[in-house]
Amino acid sequence: MIPAAFQYERAFSVEEALTALASDPDAKLLSGGHSLLPMMKLRLARPTKLIDITRIPELCTITIESDRISIGAAVRYHQVAGDRRLADVMPLLGEAVRVIADPQVRHRGTIGGSAAHADPASDLAAVFLASEAEFRVLGPRGERRIPADGWYVAPLVTTLEPDEMLMGIDFPRPLSSRQTYLKFPHPASGYALAGVAALLSLDAEGRVRKASVAVTGAASMPFRAEAAADRLLGQTLTKDVVREASELGSGEGEYTGDVQYSALYRQNLARVMIQRALERLVQA
Amino acid sequence: MEGHLSIQLTVNGRAVAGEVEPRTLLAHYLRDALGLTGTHVGCDTSQCGACTVLIDGLPVKSCTVLAVQADGSAITTVEGLASGGHAHAVQRAFQERHGLQCGFCTPGVLMLSSWFIQQYPTADDRQIREALDGIICRCTGYENIVQSIARAQEIQRENQAPLAGEAREGVSS
Ligand SMILES: Cc1cc2nc3c(=O)[nH]c(=O)nc-3n(C[C@H](O)[C@H](O)[C@H](O)COP(=O)(O)OP(=O)(O)OC[C@H]3O[C@@H](n4cnc5c(N)ncnc54)[C@H](O)[C@@H]3O)c2cc1C
Ligand code: FES
Ligand code: FES
């Protein structure tokens, strides 16, 4: 299968990319190409121009500062997985990218591509939501910072305007030290049938000081399980508390069944996976 | 040619320059323009990994990479695995352990394996199976592929320790 014909342009700077994007309403940015090219091969997408952003230096860096971690939009999954400094300050991110697809896909796919493509089962969506990430966007009208809560609008739709570019994703520091991402992959596609990112910090008495849980894949949209976090706050992590939090948290998604998995099954799976993720953090 | 772009690659150590349409997939460029038909196109939907080649040392699915995206890179295909007339460790191991049946998936499996044993020389069976996630083999049931990769790790170790080998031979003779 061969995509419909298009023009290709390689941008070496942010300005070049934005100018090229503004000059053609049917142009698209090309990052790892592992969502866009398969869609173009099936002719589900027919952009007239692709603007390759993977050689723009600003988009390819990982920066760790005292109050934040910034990942450039064109940083590839395998680079995140192999970054030792990141493993120290945000193990959650490496844990999540290591269960995306397979080694070959991880050598191409990028953090920004995953965010911009906004597949409702994307593994990173749960990580972005749970860690309160902020999306840095640049366009002809200047820079915007969009919190993860306001990023995902609908399946494959974000708040990004067609002439804007995602520059990178910032994670606030310090993050809760107990973090995990747990995935139940779809047996055929490998995408998350339910993926749960959870972060917890405890006080000296072992009571929950901060909690954050997000779920991808199970519901029609990735969501933050606020009610789970609320139930955990101030509590000691007993079996009952964890069970109740999982129940409440999974109840917040909007589930739709498909040929293989009913809405009820999906909600139950979300509950089980939240519970397993929290149990893992109790032991951590 | 109109709408074509010039690209320069190093393919199996040889400099290559060409003119391609932007929509030309790397797999097709290798097969049709360069005649390197060892790289197979199986699913053409990014699933099977038969088209796996190394770009700058990393395995990728060449049916999901544009030739223009690879401009300036070094590509290794299955034709470039052997060097100086010597089969690569993975080639020897797959032969010894029967890591293939029909052989259709094999070029991709070999390319992935060549990267894997170098990157994770002591990986266990579970890790080998995990690495094979991006490969679909319809024949072997993977069992012999896993064993072949484990064997390739051994061969690699033997190759890397020629001095120790010589010393052992010295003692036994
Ligand atoms: C076989 C296979 C299995 C997969 N399995 C999984 C999985 O298990 N879990 C998972 O989460 N994902 C999975 N994916 C998807 C993969 O993670 C994609 O790589 C990712 O979703 C898109 O990233 P990309 O860099 O390839 O983006 P591209 O394909 O290059 O781009 C995707 C979209 O985002 C836009 N875009 C890209 N970068 C920017 C930017 N900086 N600013 C604005 N717009 C931008 C593009 O224009 C395009 O519309 C899989 C993909 C394949 C092929
Ligand atoms: S042909 Fe490329 S993954 Fe199957
Ligand atoms: S040997 Fe036949 S597909 Fe793998």
Q: Sheet with the most strands of chain B?
A: 5 strands, mixed
Using the CA coordinates, give the radius of gyration of chain A.
19 Å
Just name the CATH architecture of the largest domain in chain B: Roll
How many structural domains does the protein architecture of chain A include?
A: 3
What is the beta-strand fraction of chain A? 25-35%
Question: Can you characterise this structure?
Answer:
The complex is a heterodimer of chains A (284) and B (173). Chain A is of the alpha+beta class and 284 residues long. Chain A folds into three domains: 7-52, Uridine Diphospho-n-acetylenolpyruvylglucosamine Reductase, domain 2 (2-Layer Sandwich), CATH 3.30.43; 57-172, 2-Layer Sandwich (Uridine Diphospho-n-acetylenolpyruvylglucosamine Reductase, domain 3), CATH 3.30.465; 178-282, CO dehydrogenase flavoprotein, C-terminal domain (Enolase-like, domain 1, 2-Layer Sandwich), CATH 3.30.390. In chain A, 33% of the residues lie in helices and 26% in strands. In chain A, the strands form four sheets. In chain A, strands 4-5-10-6-7 form a five-stranded antiparallel β-sheet. Chain A has a four-stranded antiparallel β-sheet with strand order 11-12-13-14. The longest helix of chain A is centred in the last third of the chain and has 21 residues, at 263-283. Chain A starts with 6 loop residues before the first strand and ends with a helix. The mean pLDDT of chain A is 97. Chain B folds into two domains: 5-79, Roll (Ubiquitin-like (UB roll)), CATH 3.10.20.30; 89-160, DNA polymerase, domain 1 (Orthogonal Bundle). With 173 residues, chain B is an alpha+beta fold. The N and C termini of chain B lie far apart (67 Å). In chain B, a hairpin with a 2-residue loop joins strand 3 (52-55) and strand 4. The A-B interface holds A 1-8, 10, 30, 33-34, 37-38, 41-42, 50, 52, 54, 78, 101-105, 107-108, 190 and B 3, 5, 21-25, 28, 44-46, 49, 52, 55, 58-61, 64-66, 68-69, 71, 112, 115-116, 131, 133-135. One FE2/S2 (inorganic) cluster is lined by residues 100-106, 137-140 of chain B.
